[in-house]
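This section describes the prediction task in plain terms. A model, or a person checking by hand, is given the sequence of a single protein chain and must write out its three-dimensional structure as a string of tokens. No templates, partner chains or ligands are provided. The sample shown here is typical of the held-out split.
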Amino acid sequence: MNLQLVLIVASLLTFIYVIGRIRKHQLNIDDSIVWIIWSIVLLILSIFPGLSHTISDFLGFESTSNFILTGFVFLLYIMVFFQNIRISSLKESNKKLIQKLSIEKKKAEEENK
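The expected answer:
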């Protein structure tokens, strides 16, 4: 019961924190969707612990805590993957911008000569 209460409070605090960051324009909605969905899923699994027991038994986990931990790891793995995609895209955009600025600077220097 204590773990259930901690998970409920943690999921609610996560949800409130993410919504607050969105309202203050410190977090994009695209970036926060995963956190909002995860906090809702965690809240549902906290309120209905039998559901997480059923799912963990169905998937063959020895304990429910292993199922929840694996869920967290899987979520973080997905988030890191998508962040790497975004970082790669930003690096490419940054490179193109630097090349464009360098060409414009070179043209401006040639015109001033």
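For orientation: The mean pLDDT is 89.
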